[in-house]
Structures are given as C-alpha cells and as structure tokens.
Amino acid sequence: MKNQQKPIITVQNLVAQYGENVILDGVNLEVFKGEILVVLGGSGCGKSTLLRHMVGLDVPRSGNIIVDGIDITNCNDADFKTTLRKIGILFQSSALFGSMTLAENMAVPIAEYSDLPKSVITDLIRMKLCRVDLSEFENYLPFEISGGMKKRAGLARALALNPEILFLDEPTAGLDPVSAAEIDNLILQINQSSKTTIVIVTHELFSIFKVAHRVIMLDKSTKGIIAQGDPQYLKDHSENKKVKGFFNRESSSGQLSETL
C-alpha cells in the first residue's frame, strides 16, 4: 500500500533483549494509518516480541516507538494512558478471564479507560458482540464457547473503545479453515468500515494473502527485517531464499517445509 501520510507508528532502531538474548537488533519500521500490516517469519524470529514492544508491554533495551506522535518509550504516565486508549489488542490465546462472562470481560477495558455510565457500557458491549456475531452469547463463560468464538470475543473486547489501531497476535492460529476465514473477513470489515490501522502477527499463509496490504518478514539469524512489501510480489519475485521459501512453503533444500 502506497501512502504519502506521516506514519501513525514509527519504530526507530529498536533493540529488544531478554536477559543476554538479543531478539531484535536495530529494527526500523513505519505503519501508516488505515493499512493492514502483517508481521511474519519463522518461529522465534521476534514477531510477538515486536508486537509487545509496539504496544508498550515490554520496554526496549534501546530505540524508540512513536505511536500517533507520542514516544511510548519516553513519555509520562498520562501520555502513555492516552496512547493505550487508542489501541486495541487481541492476544494469541484471546486472554479472556475464565471466571467472567463475555460481557464482563468486555467491560474491563471500558471501565478502565472511560467514565461511561453502566447503561451505556451495557449497550456498547451488545453492539460490539453483535459486530462479531456473538450477540446471543454475552452471558456465556469462555469455557462454554468454541475456539473460534473465543477469538471473536477477544476481538470484540479489543474493539470496545473504538481504537484507532488494532494489534492482533496470531488471530487465526489453531482454528479450523471456516473459523479462520470468518476472522479474516472480520478483519477486512473492520479495516474497510472504520479505516482502522491493523498490525497482525501471523505465519498463516492463507490469511496473509487475504488481508495484508503490506508485510514485513523478520529473521531469527539477522534479528531484523529481511523483506517488506506486497506478499504476492515477494512470493513471486524475492531473491532471498528464506523469503521465497516461506511464501512457497519450501525449506532451504527446496523441499516442502514442515515448519510452516
């Protein structure tokens, strides 16, 4: 996606490290308003690590992350909370509280980041659950619904405050093809109807080709970005063996990869 706007997210010289283990080293990245950017790569390349740093869950060893004009690596608590108000997050496991109903799960971020009256919160929850086709399930506990429904419930919670930016960590992982396609369609609908900027971490090729405007590929050995652009173009034209292998499901020896 070509875009002449200023980026809504800028990652500058990011170094991410856990203990002595450097995961990302000198990563630079821009995300533009209204685009769907997919972060991909093999296992252990730092996809989820990058996402966690971009939403402020982890503090980088060095570098800066600027979200809608605020450097979340170097700002006060008030600015950080203002930034979080603009962000919705769907974690890989959905991260629903098991003892709470879907409605109660959704009420948590709304109560934390707004002062809306209870009646308005109730109506908002019903609207968001309806948007993800869960309008009859507000009083269900997470263990009472399927994996695909949990993902949709997590997505509804991420949408609770009408965020400008959505971060989705493996939104279709572990789902059957029909449920995965439903999530992909929801992602496209949200992006198209609300112009929401969406950053997705995934290695699911079908989803990548269906929803991505642009992708970046991380590599474990280089600890950074080895390719970015249109996924179909990278599949057809990349001369990097790792990039070509990923998109064509081939190992470095040219055989079908079992890791994807």
Can you tell me about this structure?
There is one protein chain. This protein is α/β, with parallel strands linked by helices and 260 residues long. The protein folds into two domains: 1-86 and 163-260, Rossmann fold (3-Layer(aba) Sandwich), CATH 3.40.50.300; 96-162, no CATH class. It is built from nine helices and ten strands. The chain has helices spanning 47-54, 77-84, 102-113, 118-131, 147-158, 177-194, 205-211, 231-237, 241-247, and strands at residues 7-18, 21-32, 36-40, 62-67, 70-71, 87-90, 165-169, 197-201, 214-219, 224-229. The strands form two sheets. Strands 6-7-8-3-9-10 form a six-stranded mixed beta sheet, with helices on both faces. Strands 2-1-4-5 form a four-stranded antiparallel beta sheet, covered by helices on one side. Helix 3 packs parallel to helix 5 (147-158) and helix 8 crosses helix 9.
